[in-house]
Write a structure and sequence with these properties.
The complex is a heterodimer of chains A (176) and B (423).
Chain A: H1 4-12, E1 28-36, E2 39-47, H2 48-52, H3 61-75, H4 77-80, E3 81-83, E4 89-97, H5 105-108, E5 120-129, E6 137-140, H6 142-145, E7 151-158, E8 161-167, E9 173-175
Parallel strand pairs in A: 1-7
Antiparallel strand pairs in A: 1-2, 2-5, 3-6, 4-5, 6-9, 7-8
Chain B: H1 2-14, H2 16-50, E1 56-60, H3 64-73, E2 82-83, H4 84-91, E3 96-108, E4 111-116, H5 119-123, E5 125-126, E6 130-131, E7 134-137, E8 149-152, H6 154-160, E9 167-168, E10 186-192, E11 203-206, H7 207-213, E12 217-218, E13 221-222, E14 242-243, E15 245-250, H8 256-264, E16 271-274, H9 276-319, H10 321-329, H11 334-375, H12 386-412
Parallel strand pairs in B: 4-11, 8-10
Antiparallel strand pairs in B: 1-15, 1-16, 2-14, 3-4, 3-15, 5-6, 7-10, 8-11, 9-10, 12-13
Helix pairs in contact in B: 1-11, 2-9, 2-11, 2-12, 9-11, 9-12, 11-12
The chains are: A alpha+beta (176), B alpha+beta (423).
């Protein structure tokens, strides 16, 4: 039962606390994906820094424009996430909350006490697929839009089980 | 050509000692390479098979991999327990279809003891969503009367020769020589069919039983002067205060991340919820470097073995000048000589890898029980996978390519070379 050696190998590496709540690492986003029958649900969390380079209220028009552009990018779900074309998936709903934009200011600070120095973008997407059996993966264009995003830690739960995958600009496709 | 190969074979037999040693080196090297690949693949397969249908594993705040290893594989240890109240609250959560509490920490003759509820036998799934099956007997009752009942896994039964009705005592902690709960023996009421997962190595009792055997204990040892006899424990409230971990199945898969966030932000106590499949992938991501290193080292060992083969063949050329010259004089062309040398290399490599396969089989047979009990890796003999066959073929191909060099040397040697007597 002492698995100690394998265990030691596993735990000696920096990992695994990655999904604790409230983690905020610049350059690193999180994506949770659930594939349930014909529905794909994606939850995205990005440090605001990865999108616009700052995490505070905008100080000038340029920064305001950057936030607005981010908001627009995030709402274009069909361009941002591309499930296997053969599965014929269409966007059902999009919700994106970019801090310091419009009426969503309260979300920007994220409500965590003592965490006012960080701000996260939160977005969720629902796709519905006509041919769920053909669904093999989802490609994301996030890295093309957000150059300061270096990796996306994904968790996945679907018909073929659960899994974790790290997406990077070189490997922008979630597969299962 | 047939004659050439026959001569090559006989010539090789004449030098069987040196070639035999080279062959042994190649056999060992290829067995090592195959073993690394086999253990890697089987460990992944075995781990992935061990849990299915569990949406979330919940435990005290900590690393997800550690939690998953402890809750599912009973390996390592938990940093903290979680409250029984949290289990009750989560079990009642509208998104939760079922929740199975786990309490670990005791053992029986080196096998882990798992305190749980009868729901475990109903909801636990392994492999391709297969349910647990009783080879004999029934689940423990989980009632006050049936508190000292145990269900054992197939390996526990086989290793210790237990049958239904046998009585066993549990030890405190994971050490085989830990203090015994000798005053409170358990009756075996069920034996599970083999699953190839850690379930086979586990002794299952009810949560209440775990509380009962620790009633007169404090701080990891029996309280001096206080011994509550087994008949008396039923008068106590046996509802546990704490459990080690919790397995959760959801009504709808869609809720998994919402519930995970909910649990990770649990107000009453710090908890961690992890998707077991995600934690496994994280573990593999972490050990991938080690795996690649081991693979590179064993590939290098194969290269060393093949280099030894080339060296042996090249060194042999000098001693065989006369032999080769006579063959040439008798009418063998340079092509035939080349063929002889290449065939010899191919023969040694092929025999070496075949012997390596035999070594692997023998090694697996010898080490499988250890790998299973110590590391939870099921290493059964099975046919070679596509990966392994590719490895075998690449060893042979490399061996053939390497023996082209001595072949070329022999081909270049002039007819006169071995016939002119040297001083």
């Amino acid at each position: 039962m002492n698995f100690h050696r394998l265990l030691a190998l596993g735990l000696a590496f920096p990992l695994s606390v990655a999904f604790a709540a409230g983690k905020h690492v610049h350059g690193e986003g999180r994506l949770d994906a659930v594939i349930d029958k014909e529905t794909i649900t994606l939850n995205l969390e990005l440090p605001l820094d990865a999108a616009v380079g700052f995490e505070r209220p905008p100080r000038n028009d340029k920064e305001k424009a950057a936030l607005a552009a981010t908001d627009k990018t995030l709402k274009e779900a069909a361009a941002l996430f591309v499930p296997t074309p053969a599965a014929r998936c269409t966007v059902q709903s999009v919700q994106a909350q970019v801090p310091f934009t419009g009426g969503d200011d309260k979300h920007g600070e994220h409500g965590h006490e003592g965490e006012t120095h960080h701000a996260d973008i939160e977005a969720s997407y629902v796709f519905r697929c006509a041919e769920p059996a053909a669904l093999k993966g989802i490609e994301t264009a996030l890295f093309k839009h957000f150059k300061r995003l270096y990796r996306l830690e994904t968790q996945r739960s679907g018909p073929s089980g659960q899994g974790a995958q790290r997406l990077t600009p070189k490997v922008p496709v979630l597969t299962w | 050509m047939k004659a050439v190969l026959l001569i090559a074979l006989k010539s090789a037999w004449a030098r069987r000692l040196t070639l035999g040693i080279t062959l042994a080196a190649i056999a060992l090297a290829s067995a090592l390479l195959l073993a690394v690949e086999r253990v890697r693949a089987d460990a992944r397969q075995g781990f992935a098979q061990s849990v299915s249908g569990v949406d979330l594993v919940v435990g005290a705040r900590g690393g997800g991999v550690q939690l998953m290893l402890y809750a599912v594989f009973h390996a390592g240890s938990a940093s903290h327990n979680m409250r029984y109240d949290s289990y009750r609250a989560l079990a009642a959560h509208p998104a939760v279809a079922w929740a199975v509490p786990l309490s670990l920490g005791d053992s029986h003759r080196g096998f882990p003891v798992l305190g749980t509820t009868a729901a475990y036998f109903e909801h636990f799934r392994y492999g391709d969503r297969r349910a647990l099956v009783f080879a004999a007997g029934r689940p423990f009752a989980g009632t006050v009367e049936g508190v000292f009942e145990a269900v054992i896994g197939s390996q526990v039964a086989a290793a210790l020769g237990y049958r239904i009705g046998d009585r066993i005592t549990l030890s405190h902690g994971m050490e085989e020589l830990g203090p015994e709960h000798a005053d409170k023996p358990f009756a075996i009421v069920g034996i599970l069919a083999p699953t190839g997962t850690p379930v086979d190595r586990t002794v299952h009792v009810s949560l209440e039983a775990i509380t009962a055997i620790h009633l007169d204990w404090a701080g990891g040892a029996p309280l001096p002067g206080l011994a509550i006899p087994a008949e008396q424990v039923r008068k106590f409230d046996l509802q546990p205060q704490e459990i080690t971990a919790l397995l959760i199945g959801l009504k709808r898969r869609t809720d998994v991340f919402r519930l995970q966030r909910h649990i990770n932000g649990w107000r009453e106590e710090p908890l961690t919820a992890v998707l077991p499949g995600v934690a496994l992938d994280e573990l593999w991501q972490a050990v991938a470097t080690v795996e690649r290193t081991l693979f590179a080292i064993s590939a290098a060992v194969v290269a060393v073995g093949l280099a030894g083969l080339v060296a042996t063949l090249l060194a042999g050329l000098d001693q065989r000048r006369r032999e080769l010259a006579i063959l040439r004089a008798l009418g063998a062309g340079p092509g035939a000589i080349f063929l002889m040398l290449a065939a010899e290399g191919l023969l040694v490599t092929t025999l070496g890898t075949l012997l390596g396969c035999a070594l692997l089989a023998a090694g697996l047979a010898a080490l499988a029980p250890l790998a299973q009990t110590q590391f939870g890796i099921p290493l059964a003999w099975r046919m070679f996978s596509a990966n392994e066959i590719a490895l075998l073929l690449s060893i042979i191909a490399t061996g053939l390519a390497a023996s082209l060099l001595p072949g070329w040397r022999a081909w270049r040697m002039s007819l006169a070379d071995g016939l002119i007597p040297r001083n």
